[in-house]
Design a protein that fits this description.
- The chain contains 17 helices and 18 strands.
- The protein has 457 residues and is an alpha+beta fold.
- The strands form 5 sheets. Strands 1, 2, 3, 4, 5, 6, 7, 8, 15 and 16 form a 10-stranded antiparallel sheet that branches.
- Strand 12 and strand 13 form a beta hairpin.
- Helix 1 crosses helix 8, helix 6 runs parallel beside helix 13 and helix 12 packs antiparallel against helix 14.
- The longest helix is centred in the middle third of the chain and has 21 residues.
- The two termini are 22 Å apart.
């Protein structure tokens, strides 16, 4: 998230929190596609991580991008930590370990998403390459230890860094050593949100498998195809994972609110200062738990919006739905991830088909699939088949959905071509991670250094 929210309206009751989510309902002609992607900056000389400060640091990249784009700076305690397009159409932010993120504008087509990604990568290369910096498209940092990974000067990350070791074994790895591609999608009603949430929760492990792209840790194979997927199994299980209550046939906004109310907070912002709130849940906050701890210690709608942004389930509900299962990857994956989900969720016939395919899938089965995917990828078993075979059916549905949308570029091509990179995974029967591992054991000669050339932007 590029910028934390400031909305000083007081919260009068839980109904307002439910209404906040319901305000996301949009007519179909207003549905948009918001794509986010992260990448690891590194120095070409030595494949070393890039710190925040210095003439060749991340701050310098942000300042160069600000000069080039004219976007507004996002400041934290006097330091630039991001940029936002003046009308809210996109933002650049930093993840804790310096991962450089584009949060794209809400766009109508995957063609526009791909052009946006192309333009961003060209712009950031123009600024970074004279500094000897490039960017790596993987789901997990392949070389640097936690101690070697830089820390960005962002107040919320200081709070999270202190808190994460208290609630899981892999939270710091999540923060500092992973990258993702995400897409944010709209819904028209509570019922539509429910359908999309349930279908996408069930299919999120398949997304992790298809995009598995993090097989190395600290210069060695880690025994996994998606290290990032494994990290999310023990980051902070109070606020992340597969949400069983969302599988209920009458799941709605109020259910998500009730869950979110009982998750510990991270922070509140008062007068530009972040206050650590990890010792209370939002429900306790509403009951007055911080009344004497922070200035104006009563909850606001801005506090609620920020709290929702610190919850990390496989599919996150805000005033839209965030698909959170995929590893970061090379350029083609940036376009493929939104195409995959838009094809499934933005066409009624495709959503019907995806819902029918997954209707009998239970929470327990989906959880077992989620647990198997980090190691096995598309070879993970499901019932009497594998995810590779499930992927054939799901990609066919997504392709039909994209074809039905009929969104063509100036050359007359629709959005289906953006699925080609995923079709290749299924046709080969091997993920990107497995391809990298094969190269490591053969032409890379047991070294991960070539990954910085072959998977760099």
């Amino acid at each position: 998230m590029a910028r934390d929210t400031t909305d000083f309206r007081p919260i009068e009751g839980v109904d307002e929190l439910v209404e906040h989510l319901a305000e996301g309902n949009k007519a179909r002609d207003k549905w948009r596609i918001g794509t986010e992607h992260e990448k690891f900056p590194f120095y070409v000389d030595g494949n070393a991580p890039v710190p925040y400060g210095g003439e060749r640091g991340i701050r310098a990249i942000l300042e160069g991008m600000q000069s080039k784009l004219g976007w507004d700076p996002i400041m934290d305690d006097g330091r630039i930590i991001g940029l936002v397009e003046p009308t809210g159409q996109g933002a650049i932010s930093l993840e804790p370990g310096g991962q450089f993120e584009l949060s794209g504008a809400p766009l109508e087509t995957i063609h526009q998403t791909c052009r946006e990604g192309n333009a961003h990568l060209a712009q950031v290369r123009e600024i970074a390459e004279p500094m000897g910096i490039r960017f790596l498209g993987l789901g997990g940092s392949p070389k640097w230890s936690l101690a070697e990974t830089p820390k960005m000067p962002k107040s919320r990350y200081e709070i999270m860094t202190r808190y994460m070791p208290k609630v899981g074994t892999k939270g710091l790895d999540m923060m500092y050593r992973t990258c993702t591609i995400q897409v944010n999608l709209d819904f028209e009603s509570e019922a539509d949100m429910r359908r999309k949430m349930q279908v996408s929760l069930k299919l999120q492990p398949l997304s992790t498998a298809l995009f598995a792209n993090s097989p190395f840790t600290e210069s060695r194979p880690n025994g996994l195809q998606s290290w990032r997927g494994d990290i999310w199994r023990d980051t902070d299980n109070q606020r992340s994972g597969l949400l069983e209550f969302c599988f209920s046939p009458d799941f709605g906004f109020a259910d998500y609110v009730e869950w979110a109310l009982d998750v510990p907070m991270y922070f509140v912002i008062r007068d530009g200062r972040y206050h650590d709130m990890t010792h209370v849940t939002f429900r306790q906050f509403m009951a007055g738990a911080a009344r004497n701890e922070v200035p104006d210690g009563l909850p606001t709608m801005g506090d609620w919006a920020n709290h929702l942004s610190t919850l990390f389930p496989d599919v996150r509900l805000k005033r839209f739905l965030e698909m959170r299962g995929a590893d970061g990857g090379p350029w083609r994956r940036i376009c493929a991830l939104p195409a995959f989900w838009v094809g499934l969720l933005y066409d009624e016939a495709a959503l019907d088909a995806a819902e029918a395919l997954t209707a009998s899938w239970t929470y327990e089965e989906t959880l077992a699939m989620r647990n198997a995917v980090p190691e096995l990828g598309i070879s993970a078993p499901f019932r009497n088949t594998t995810l590779r075979e499930i992927a054939r059916d799901v990609l066919a549905i997504s392709r039909t959905g994209l074809k039905n949308r009929g969104k063509k570029n100036r050359d007359g091509y629709d959005e289906t071509s953006f699925l080609n990179t995923l079709d290749e995974v299924v046709a080969r029967g091997t993920t990107s991670a497995e391809e990298m591992l094969s190269a490591y054991h053969t032409r890379w000669g047991g070294s991960i250094e070539p990954v910085f050339m072959e998977y760099a932007y």
